[in-house]
Amino acid sequence: MNSQPSEPTRWWDLSAAVILIIANFLAAMRLIATDWTDELSMVQLISFTGLALGLALGQSRFHRLQALWYAIGFGLFMLGWQMGATFAQGMLWSARVTNLGGRLVVSTQNLFQQRAVTDPILFLLLMCVLYWA
User: Is residue 100 pLDDT above 90, yes or no?
Assistant: First the structure.
């Protein structure tokens, strides 16, 4: 007799994964087609990366909390990397992060003070977070 509890078997539904990939790709392409702002193409990369990581973590043997922390950590890295990549090539990453933080603070202040928000950084960040999740 086996006294150890057996691990739950993980099954893989290929057709559901393919449908999810296609739906996610089409949703990201429709957002890009709106052309609401520049740099919307980063949403497609973040969406695909988040989907691939989610499928991999779902199939992995990590516990839920571990998988959640991996997804959050990798998501923060991806968002920062893609947002920072919108700047000029020669710019230092410390300057990019400082610039991004300042733009986010100013845009958020304008939003809460009910002033016009002309910088698309807040919209881009929101779309990236939504498509990552």
Answer: yes
